[in-house]
Structure of GH16 domain-containing protein:
Amino acid sequence: MRIYLRIYYSCTGLSPIECEREAIFYFILPPVESARIHTKNSFSFRYGKVEIRAKLPVGDWIVPELWLIPKDDFYGPYYSSGKIRLAMARGNENLKSGTIDLSNSRLEAGVLMGPENDVQVKSINWTNSGGWNKEFHNFTLLWTPDNLSFSVDDYPAVSLINGKLGRLSESLSFKKSPVESWKRGSNVAPFDKEFYISLGLSVGGIRDFPDNSLNGGQRKPWTDSDAKV
């Protein structure tokens, strides 16, 4: 089965890649559309300070996407070249995975890195019992050749690499192949190349909501291994 989506209003993306999509087998067309803005073709940078002031959205199974994304896949495709998450709080107001609170009161920031079958997450968490959707907050990243440090509002900044020595990749349990590739770079590889800013909103997915999640006592309405046709 094939389903075609054609956009007939004026498209601001790269035509036809970003203006047409075709669903084939498990590459489905998402049932929900949302806006995304990025600086891919206008601005990218390596190292510096990034601060975003935002009020994160609320709503079941939605995820704000405040990303830094690699301009070029220098270390390989997918997450092999890494993605930096500036801030994320799931939209659900009453979501748990076992005893872990994954609701809108839990804020996460950090990095995702690795090949498609071995993506690892290193993150920092903050808690706001009132939720991160009530007020605007300042989400900050300080990115240097030696470390990545995250903070929110007046909370003290927290670094991903502790101590003066060590590689970011060595603090995670990777197989040998991606680690060897990143050894060509600095201690923060793959986060030692130019990245651009991407802001958007996603729904569902296979990474942010564990299959055992309970939303207000109700089980997650899909599983990550569900058929996509």
